[in-house]
Amino acid sequence: MATETVRLTELSHGAGCACKLPAGSLREVLAGMPQVSAAQLMVGHESLDDAAVWRVSAELAVVQTIDFFTPLVDDPHTFGRIAATNAFSDIYAMGARPAFALNVVAFPKALPMELLGQILRGGADVAAAAGAVIAGGHSIDDPEPKYGMAVTGFARPDEIWTNAGGREGDALVLSKAIGTGIVTTAVKRGDPDPAAVDAAVESMTTLNGEAAGLVRAARPHAVTDVTGFGLVGHAREVAAGAGLRAEIDWAAVRLLPGVRELIAAGHVPGGTRTNLELARAYGAFGPGLDEADRLLACDAQTSGGLLASLPPERAAELPWPVIGRLVAGEPGTVSVG
Questions:
Q1: What is the CATH number for 282?
Q2: Is 17 a catalytic residue?
Q3: Catalytic pick among 8, 17, 94, 239
Q4: Rounded to whole angstroms, how far apart are CA atoms 270 and 288?
């Protein structure tokens, strides 16, 4: 089988982070899990944060995450780059610096191994750009390709960011435009707008390391990255962690080019529709927002930007628009208007 004839997205039931299980389902499952208690565990699964954090000493904390998903583009090297960039993002979202990674691979043994080699080279290129090394990994035979990484980073315990430190009056900033779920669904269906695809790939392969450095200088109260649960879903986590309500100024949110046209053509991932359905329980959308706006606000992102909560005067120091704020209200609710 010639490698150029293999469309990876045809082997995938979903696309990227849109393959995530719904947040509501995860909360239901995790609620039945035994409570973990360890003096060294600074961040566990309870808050659905981006990574686990283990305090080794007063000067050192280990930050660890794992992320993998099905193909969302057909080019294997680009798929590897996107998956690795997405995995490294969780380390940056905790305020840590990545050190090493392990590859996580599911791949059909019937396909040419050259394809897998290109995927792994894409991941290796990203690791090198992040200043990290790939120390090994694990693979299985699977009819549906999947790739990602388990990434380990380090930080001082007193410099760890979580999604739970926001304060009333904080501004919310987002470092990337949204709409990758819409674009990658168009790719999977074989009807993409080239300009939209190029912009989405550029966004998904841009490491959040530089953005994290800018956020660090602004001394944030809370940080997360916007991925499979969409902007509204991740804003909900920040609001719930703060015991506040999040208000999103939709006009300030940047969108990838061409996404509205792709929605009109029917390119909406199932994960995005699930996010919107779940948001009806905790979110409120202004009357000026149409169905496309609501879908975009809930679009399942892959390798999305950093969402930071910090005082307005410090938010003004960052090169991205303020997209909202944290205010008094029912904890964990989000209004978009």
A1: 3.90.650.10
A2: yes
A3: 17
A4: 24
